[in-house]
Amino acid sequence: MLSFELLNQATISFNNTPLSQFRSQKEAALLIFLAHTQQAHSREYLATLLWESSTTKQSLTNLRTALARLKKQVSGECLIVTRQTVGLAPDKISHVDSSQLFQTLKNLGDVNTAEKATTLQNALASYRGEFLTNFHVAKAAQFNEWVTQTREALRREVISGYSKLSQYALQTGDHDYGLEIANNWLSVDRLDESAQTLRIQLLVETDQTREALSEYVNFTDLLQAELGIEPPENLSNMIQQIQPERTTAPVRNLKPTIRHNLQPEYDQFIGRFEEIEEIHTRLDQPWCHLVSLIGPGGAGKTRLATTIARSRVDQYRDGVWFIELDNLDPEDDDLAETIAVEIAIALDLRLTGADTPIEQVLNHLQHSKMLLILDNFEHVLPGKQLVLDIVQRCDGVQMIVTSREALRLKSEWAVRLGGLTYPSNGREDEPSTAVSLFIARRSQQQWDELEHEELIAVRSICRIVEGLPLAIELAAALTRYDTCQEIAERLTDGFDALKATLDDVPDRHRGMYTVFDMSWQTLSPALQQRLARLAYFRGSFDKTAVSQIADTSSPHLAALAEKSLLTYSRATKRYRLHAIIRAYAEEHRPFKDTTPQKHAEYYLGVLASHTESLQKDKPQESINVLEPDIENIRLAWQFGIDHECLNELSDGLTSLSIYYQLRGLAFEGSEVMQATVQAAISWDEALGLTAKASLEQTRFQNRLGLYKAAIKTAQKTIQFAEQSKDSWAIGMANVWWSESLWRIGESEKAAYKLYQTLDDAESQNYSTVSGWCHHQLAIVHHIQGTLQQGLEHIQKACLIWQNLENVQALVGSLNSMSLIQNGLGNVDDAIVILEEALKYCDQLGDRFRKTHLINNLSLLSTEQEDYDGAIYYLTLGLKLAKEIGNLQMLAGMLINLGRNFYFLEELDSSQKNLEEGLLLAESLNEKTTILLGLVHLSKTKQKMGDRQEAYYLLERALDLSRINTQKSNEFQVLLHLAELLAEQDSAKAQAYLSEAKLLTSKIQDKALIKQAKAIEALLKK
Description:
This protein is mainly α and 1021 residues long. It is built from 47 helices and 15 strands. Strands 9-10-11-8-12 form a five-stranded parallel sheet, with helices on both faces. α8 (193-205) runs antiparallel to α9 (209-226), α29 (646-662) runs antiparallel to α30 and α39 packs parallel to α41.
């Protein structure tokens, strides 16, 4: 359900979670306009409202893009989108405060009963501020004008409502009620003469003459200062009647009692919704006297504390008081007394007499009801006895302490702060308070809308600094002179750039390294050494690793965590350093420190220990162990390359390759293997490692669709293997070479090479090579249409895998067997085989391969035109792929899901899934998946009536199909282009068809050739 709070600062929530991340302010504006107006509007009107400076076509495209992105943030059911109009589903909106208030005020009529008065008063209470305060959309004059008009209309209705209530109060003679109405009215507009006159009149009628005179003086001064005018004549006459002997204005009243010493707010507070709720919940309990906000420097502890305090001022009879402890000398002999003096200064408490300052402060607080904020307590921790004394002796006092280290008192309720939520990557529109903070602070430097590339850079910045509020604010301040892309690039090299560029930033916050230097100085030399060693680690780490690598035990880790320099997850039982703390501490690691070498030995050893289980019966268990350590494994592998760790790399190579395969990280796998080959080729006695790494690179290049590059790599692999006399590697290189051949349409050459390799493998008893030869030959025969021969080969491959107990390879061959059976028309057999393969996956806990099998079940359903069944399988597969992080499979499934929605003519859902799948495939550089996505999205766009966009997508697909992909892909794209242009541009369509016919000799897909003939017949009409 959608909920809108539009009075004062705008808040849009979906299922009770605030939506804080929009690609642009215009997306939020679109939702707000639809919500407040409570009706559907034409696409043309909305496009002009928000994109008036663009052409009609471009503005409609912008609207379509905005709607697609909004559907990712809220359920598609919330938006009612037709080809002509756009609106919000009424049953999906739980609350729109501005619209509900406006309708109530318009429809209520005269107030002549207590019931109507109560209804009106309750409605007016929801007016917490003006409509969309500080909400501005760049380059959208019509929308901003609508906001201004709506704001004024609401304000007029609110003023009219208070006027009606005031008349009702006067008619009923209820003076107390009238004063309440007047006070509320003045909170909306303190310069409203009618409200002020009502208040003074009621004070006079209740014989509160002194208060009435004081109110008149204050109002007179306010009118003079703000508007330069005198009070209304009727009000002045009223005052003259109650003080006829005076000829001059009465003396103004004494200054009201000060309730707090908090600094005024100068910008919007962003995020921390859960923490704010938690702190309020605790402070609402009578037994809670001490809440400590614990976190590293720059986490925003002080700002959160003052935000909480400001919202609770009215709950404390004696006010809220902020005590800054940062400037106290931590070497003071009696820190408790020093803190007491600071409290007395804040409270304006005069310390006199023989009692100590501590006793005098405690005696004063014993009779008080107030909230104290003790800021930066980590500097004066030895003085915490005073805090304990206040807890034990002053029942009406509550305290919020901010500190980098807990006080460790029984009465302490600790709330630990880390960074704000930040995106996991630069592309996804994940809800992120870190990005919202950056955008809010950036807007103080320049008031223009972020371009898409700039927004991606903002997400990168927030991810680099891991959501740390001070780092984000310092980075946002740099936008005065630098672009977000430039700032992001500088931060990838280090955090020196994060220095204050504004004059009013406290010294302790003028740079991130300054912040952490203060914490560093509080550590013993032994802890400093250990923190510097831990800084070499990447990502998270466990006790076992740091014990063996960094000589760091549980007490050391606990001590660092206590000082907010290290975070610990109870769920994973792992530790983590914030990126900026790590960068700072790593600068203090000695040059000759042995941590990197120990780190590489440990993690490469962990990698090697999983080689057998990854290949046989426990791949999922091994993946679950390796996944949390993968960042450290990557670092260790790079160290191994840089320092010629030949044995360790050789032992871990197979395991690392399988990890990349199962996680769908083919691009990274190819890059790592290539780097390993380039390094090892110059080492002594490293030909074996070179051949193995080159072989794995060939495998990954095939997976990425780089078939011609894979052939070249396979040829180099054979050269390396021949020099190292590794005939097994020669055989496997020929297998992957053959795969490249059939994938580019040269199935005859592939078959010849596979049969030759099979003979060699059988003569040398290389069962694994033989198994892969049979597997690949089955695919080749499938392509050539000799399905029975293909079935025989795949059956032989399965038998070999069973004898070798290589269950993972068996699952892959069963998958291919199901496709052949489907080709033979044995659909039921194909499904049974896939279900058998699924059982093996469940036995192994191999959820990675399970996603592939589920995807193929969906493909079978699609072929049988069971689109709902296909969507069912894909829904299961998507959930599984997300859980295990198989991004490659996730992208493919999204494409397939969009394809099935296309067949069901659910075009919006088709477009949404295809665009999401394409975005993910592009981030992974999955060329084959990108190609499929472009083709299917083009079909959807064509059916939606956007033929120009459909043509553009097919042109992109054609360019991609000509780069190292199967000729059948290029052939198919050419046919799509010819079919698309058949009615509009027959000459161009004929040119595409002629180009396709040139590829006919390399295409053995009878269905495609039949389709080409049908299009040719269409063009001849």
